[in-house]
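To illustrate this point, we now present one chain and its tokenised fold:
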Amino acid sequence: MALLKYQRAWINDDSRYKVGMFCRQSGKTFTSTLEVVKDCVEKEIAGQRSRWIILSRGERQAKEAMAEGVVMHCQKMGADFARKEIPFFADASYSSLEVTFPGGSRITALPANADTARGFSANVFLDEFAFHQDSRKIWQSLFPVISAGHRILVMSTPNGKGNKFYDIMTGTDTFWSRHTVDIHTAVEAGLDRNVTELKSALNDDDAWSQEYELQWLDEASSWLPYELLQSCTGTIGKYTDGLCYVGVDIAIRSDLFVVTVCELVSGILVVREIIARQRISFAEQDIIVGDVLKRYRVVSVYVDQTGIGERSVEELQNKFGLDVVTGVNFSQKSKQEMAVAAKTVFENRTITIPNDPQLIADLHKIKKQYTATGMPQYIADRDSTGHADRAWSLFLAIYAYEMNGGSLAHGIDADFLMPRDNFRELKISQGVGWGIMR
């Protein structure tokens, strides 16, 4: 395969510190693994050794870099090599893939984290570095690996501004040799891609700007930008005895257990209460949910059922009924549905949230990113304040409204609800709060 101009420029640049921001489908991994193999083969011919570590965003990507990059290039060059896969840790938490050459040169591919980055002295290739989890911790662990004069190659498409790749790529120092190749540059250099067709098929302006035109879209990758959130903040008054929708984000240990109550007032969802607790038992969580159901006229409660949430959902359904409590497994599909429902009410200005810095920060943490296959995913970094738990609790409450209240909002009135006193007389012994008569 003939190399394109920008690929030759990358390979011919022998800078010790080299970073490239290449668009999708431009041959990032192909080009960098070719440079790695070329270095090993040249050292072998000269009777020397070369040692390379490839850190990819995950185990699958590490295997692809090895199989579709390193091994393929070795075969094309007719190099004498052996390959193997071995557990990296004693408990087989990770597998390392390795290609070895007769003269002692080696290439090892690993999934990137702060642990796998330690303990080597080698040249390093960071593949899709902007997408590595905890990229700054990886960087801190990694830098001693190259301190003995080794080289480091960093390659990625952009992924917002909150990562180490952004810091390196936008730095003003003279240590780094920086290469930038967007889709237009790549096509002009001979890459066989139909730009108009690609953009039309993708049908996502944010994704196109970031993945192909290399724009730093921090606010665009944030699913709910600050400006949109601020436009929906307001003074939260007292509960007016209206219909309510509740979201419950289950958690133990460091993450937060959060209950969010939204009241429907003249077609607007108003956040009436957010209860956030850390390191409390499942029994205490159930008591908090039960108390919320007693104090509000709740149409529906949507609860995070993922993993440890299975037990909580079952207990809550037994106490309060299947018609009131619904479990939601956090899959890629359900998270997208919740995120889209939430963004819709914010964009339509049919929600009012308190001007709470913690809530707003959590909502802004939610990022829309894309998997290696181009599928959207909605994620948030974990930090000392949790895992955007307030945001997911609110998303669950909005989802409860959209899946139930959205269609009921124009048809339910007080006649369909048990009167306050009668409801308490009938249900208080069961610990059940307000509910719709079926």
